[in-house]
Amino acid sequence: MYATSLVCRTCGAVYPLENRYSCDSCGGILEITYNYDNAFAEDPVRKPDCELSGMWKYRALLPVKEKKNIVTLGEGDTPLIGADRIAAAWGCDLRMMVKAEMMTPTGSFKDRPTTVGVSVAKEKGYQKIVVASSGNASASASAYAARAGMDCVVFVPDTTDINKVVQAQSYGANVIKVRGNYSRSYDMAKLCAARYDWANVTSTFINPYTVEGDKTPAYELFHQLKGQVPDYILIPIGTGPLLVGTYKGYEEMLRMGLIDRLPAMIGVQVKQCEPITRAYEAGSEKVDGWQEQIKTAAGGISDPLLGYEGDGELTLSVVKKSGGMMISLTEEEILESTQAVETKLGLYCEPTGAVSVGAVRKLWNMGLLREGALTVSYTTGHGFKYSGRHPKEPPLIDDAAQLDRLMR
Hints:
With 408 residues, the protein is α/β, with parallel strands linked by helices. Helix content is 37%, strand content 16%. The protein contains 14 helices and 13 strands. The protein has helices spanning 36-41, 84-90, 111-123, 136-148, 162-170, 182-196, 208-213, 216-224, 241-255, 275-282, 309-321, 331-345, 351-365, 400-407; strands spanning 3-8, 14-15, 30-34, 80-82, 95-100, 128-132, 151-157, 174-178, 199-200, 232-236, 264-270, 325-329, 374-379. Helix 3 (111-123) runs parallel beside helix 4 (136-148) and helix 4 (136-148) runs parallel beside helix 5.
């Protein structure tokens, strides 16, 4: 392992690799740093560890020392799928691709940060973990806790989709609903970790180790695109660690000399909850927590950021640094995006994940994407996560004559 320390992103204070969630000096967000000279000498992206599969092939750039402590269910190596039919249907003259991040053990991208967070917790001797979640992270943390033989307590908002609650319960977790929005669940998990000394693997920016798992799609894209860098990478955003992590992965590859430029990162929110987009459109570096009522099909990214607005500000800073942008979709646009992913791509997709695809059309129609550009949209959650569908009753037939009438 080449991870060396925790460094505050705000004031630069340095800490050892311990279970720490913020900077003592300024309260800032912590980041893992590495001995990059030694790590890069292994050429870990082009020559990954062949003894391991999935994202753990790149363990030289992940913060777990001993292989025996890796808690894995085979996450990573998600497909990259061409979306030419969607681009053609929408009149988008560009090369459109989808990184199917729902194709993971528990059905969402959260498996990437969770496998790292739980592995680090195991290496540090923890037997219990806690997580706050709007649904996907709760299922992921519960599964990896079961795999590791750990106890898991999950706090979810009282509006969480029942399918996600059932999934977490099935893995044996103690799921507790908290009245109010996600921020209240976040506060409860933070309190629980402090009071009982449990490892908090909530996949915002509170746990610096989990964010490292979010780098790994960048390494996979390097291989899947044969070294080509996407012009734009579009990612659904609640707090934003997947966007920040992906960009860090590309920055590391730039330092290694594997690529010669960086992608523009585009964060996608929804009109019902868009604290980061609102700050971006206002030209502000300050993100205000979302105070308005939230009612959206994309519940997985309806994070108001109340009490931890710094997470949104970090994401916004990376978006701007990359030359990217923020955009939000309406509920109608979310529905159209989900239908397109399912009927023209064949991926059963949670609305939360489909927003990154719909954002391509919206930005194209606004004249903000370059003709012929390569876009990669992350679809972050599987369709089985969402119970808000209203299926049609299939027709019932008895004979060939009725079949003929149906087929006319």
